[in-house]
Design brief:
Layout lengths: L33 H11 L6 H7 L4 H14 L5 H4 L17 E5 L2 E5 L5 H13 L1
Antiparallel strand pairs: 1-2
């Protein structure tokens, strides 16, 4: 009932060597200095910043910039706002901007002051917020 079948199949092994085509461009990788990375990551830490837009404006893929931010947070260079609220507030850096409205962040409290509010009143409010 079962006949022996002889199968005469042949196989050919193909070998290939990778060769860059003359029409494909060579990839060039850009190396970023630590100062450039810090500057770009710093741009993303401003309130309301669009990380993807900042990445594209600097010639980066957004995923690369998100990776830089994760590494900065993991290394302790950047502290998330939630973790910083338990520590004393220190003002390490500020940026001068022209605006009618002033926004002051103290821990997790944001104080908005218009142009008609005097400096003495702002200082009083800041002291009250820090004591609370």
């Amino acid at each position: 009932m079962s006949e022996r079948m002889f199968d005469t199949r042949s196989f050919e092994v193909l070998t290939a060597s990778p060769v860059r085509l003359s029409s494909s461009p060579a990839r060039s990788y850009r190396s970023w200095s630590d100062e450039e990375k810090a500057r770009i990551v710093g741009e993303t830490l401003v309130g309301g910043a669009n990380v993807s837009a900042i990445a594209r404006s600097n010639g980066l893929d957004p995923s690369q910039l998100f990776a830089w931010r994760r590494k900065a947070k993991a290394s302790g260079v950047v502290v998330p706002l939630a973790a910083a609220s338990s520590k004393p507030v220190k003002f390490a850096r500020f940026e001068v901007m022209r605006s009618d409205m002033v926004e002051i962040v103290i821990g997790n409290v944001v104080v908005h002051a218009g142009p008609d509010v005097g400096a003495d009143r702002i200082v009083d409010v800041m002291r009250a917020v820090r004591k609370a």
